[in-house]
């Protein structure tokens, strides 16, 4: 009943706002919302939770390379960083387990019942129960995120969620997370398109002594939009690392239509997606 009431209230507000716009679509954006109408009322959707909770509240701490435990909740990173991603504090739990809010570590943290650490947001007022209820409702629905509408003429792009490009990480990343707003053919990533190598101790990748990291386990957290995760089954050695997702050649990663990715973000299909990071002293 509470979930239904939230959706009805949101629909009434949006409906009222739309009624003031011209019937020919003037004053509306591409999503049919009034231009410059401000944030929509909180509703159990990822976009609404990002706009009303993660961005204004959580990113005060959880953003950039200094984000606690690597949990970045900015708009570009948050979905990949939480949905089906293991908690760093309690690796046996996922930050968001779709369909199961009680076992989702992020829910436990904002409700103040997590076994480790303080209630989130830390050193601030707790989120209102109504806000928590909306986030729980989204998780109960399966934590969906609508696929981003992209032009069929544009090739798929990728973004590094963790680690960030050129980031230095003590002990190594808990997971490598690569996201795309497009639907990527992940079967190709499992057959050699995704590689990680370390420099061999000299910080250079042109000397011929690079060492492949062949102890990675790949998984797909989300198909559309695609979120790819890689976990190292062994300890990371202090060194410089290079992540590559091929956009050229026979192993080129592609979208569902078979077009190679735009790995180098030049607006054209093709080009490798490359991210460098560094692992510092062991934890």
Topology:
Blueprint: H1 2-19, H2 46-54, H3 78-82, H4 105-111, H5 129-140, E1 159-162, E2 167-169, E3 176-180, H6 186-193, E4 194-198, E5 211-212, E6 216-222, E7 226-232, E8 239-245, E9 273-279
Parallel strand pairs: 2-9
Antiparallel strand pairs: 1-3, 3-7, 4-5, 4-8, 6-7, 8-9
Any overview of this molecule?
The structure is a single chain. With 283 residues, this protein is of the alpha+beta class. The protein has two domains: 42-140, no CATH class; 159-279, Immunoglobulin-like (Sandwich), CATH 2.60.40.1220. Helices cover 21% and strands 17% of the residues. The chain has helices spanning 2-19, 46-54, 78-82, 105-111, 129-140, 186-193; strands spanning 159-162, 167-169, 176-180, 194-198, 211-212, 216-222, 226-232, 239-245, 273-279. Strands 2-9-8-4-5 form a five-stranded mixed beta sheet. It has a four-stranded antiparallel beta sheet with strand order 1-3-7-6. β6 and β7 form a beta hairpin. The protein is globular. The chain starts with a helix and ends with a strand.
């Amino acid at each position: 009943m509470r979930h239904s009431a939230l959706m009805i209230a949101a629909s009434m507000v949006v409906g009222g706002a739309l009624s003031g716009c011209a019937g020919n679509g003037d004053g509306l954006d591409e999503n049919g919302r009034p231009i410059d109408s401000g944030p929509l009322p909180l509703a159990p959707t990822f976009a609404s939770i990002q706009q009303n909770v993660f961005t204004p509240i959580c990113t005060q701490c959880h953003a950039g390379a200094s984000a606690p435990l690597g949990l970045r909740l900015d708009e570009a990173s948050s979905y990949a960083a939480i949905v089906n991603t293991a908690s760093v504090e309690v690796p046996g739990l996922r930050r968001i387990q779709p369909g199961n809010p009680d076992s989702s570590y992020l829910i436990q943290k904002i409700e103040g019942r997590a076994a480790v650490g303080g209630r989130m947001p830390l050193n601030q007022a707790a989120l209102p129960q109504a806000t928590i209820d909306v986030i729980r409702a989204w998780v109960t629905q399966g934590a969906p995120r609508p696929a981003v509408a992209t032009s069929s003429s544009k090739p798929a792009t990728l973004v590094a969620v963790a680690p960030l490009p050129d980031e230095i990480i003590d002990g190594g990343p808990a997971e490598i997370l690569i996201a795309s707003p497009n639907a990527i053919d992940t079967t190709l990533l499992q057959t050699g398109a995704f590689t990680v190598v370390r420099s061999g101790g000299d910080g250079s990748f042109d000397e011929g002594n690079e060492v492949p990291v062949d102890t990675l386990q790949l998984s797909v957290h989300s198909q559309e939009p695609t979120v790819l995760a890689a976990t190292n089954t062994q300890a990371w050695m202090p060194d410089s690392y290079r992540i590559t997702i091929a956009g050229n050649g026979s192993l080129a990663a592609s979208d569902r239509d078979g077009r190679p990715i735009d790995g180098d973000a030049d607006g054209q299909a093709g080009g490798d997606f490359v991210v460098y990071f560094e692992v510092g002293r062991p934890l």
